[in-house]
Amino acid sequence: MAHADDGRLYAQWVELLSWLEAEAAARGLGFQKVADFPDYIYRMERAYDLPTTVMSVALASGGQPLMVAAVSPRHVDMKGVSLRLMGGSKHWHLHAGGAGLLEGKRPFTRERLAQLVDGSVRGLATV
């Protein structure tokens, strides 16, 4: 991804964070920050110019992470967002699009996220 798209990616990440928090609340899951951006942690007294300090979060059930979402830090050239199910091989890679995150060429919508969270909760129920 070109550096010109960085601002768009991070703005879309903030939107995804709000979706994740809402989806967690709707299902009684925990929403936990996992990590802040490294350059935020070490910035000392300098201003921070990204729309969030949060680099990764987890949706949790019973205190255990169920799904982890993370965005690339600023120093990475090919930036994107990853969604990963814990304890399995399922993962999704998203990148910035003109009107929102893209899953390949397909728009990644809140409805798509809801399907993924529902599937992970159903999978948890079968364990």
* Proper CATH architecture: 2-Layer Sandwich
How would you sum up the major sheet? Answer: 7 strands, antiparallel
By DSSP, the count of extended strands is 7
Helix count, DSSP H or I runs of 4 or more residues: 3
Structural class: alpha+beta
**Percentage of residues in DSSP E strands:** 25-35%
CATH fold category name: Metal Transport, Frataxin, Chain A
> What is the helix/strand order?
HEHEEEEEEH
Radius of gyration: 15 Å
Helix content: 25-40%
How are the strands of the largest sheet arranged? 1-2-3-4-5-6-7
Task: Describe the 3D structure.
The protein has helices at residues 6-27, 38-41, 110-125; strands at residues 30-36, 54-61, 64-71, 81-85, 91-96, 101-103, 106-107. With 127 residues, it is α+β, with helices and mostly antiparallel strands. Strands 1-2-3-4-5-6-7 form a seven-stranded antiparallel beta sheet. The model has no long low-confidence stretch (mean pLDDT 90). Its EC number is 1.6.5.9. It is an enzyme of class 1 (oxidoreductase). This is NADH-quinone oxidoreductase subunit 15.
Topology:
Elements: H1 6-27, E1 30-36, H2 38-41, E2 54-61, E3 64-71, E4 81-85, E5 91-96, E6 101-103, E7 106-107, H3 110-125
Helix pairs in contact: 1-3
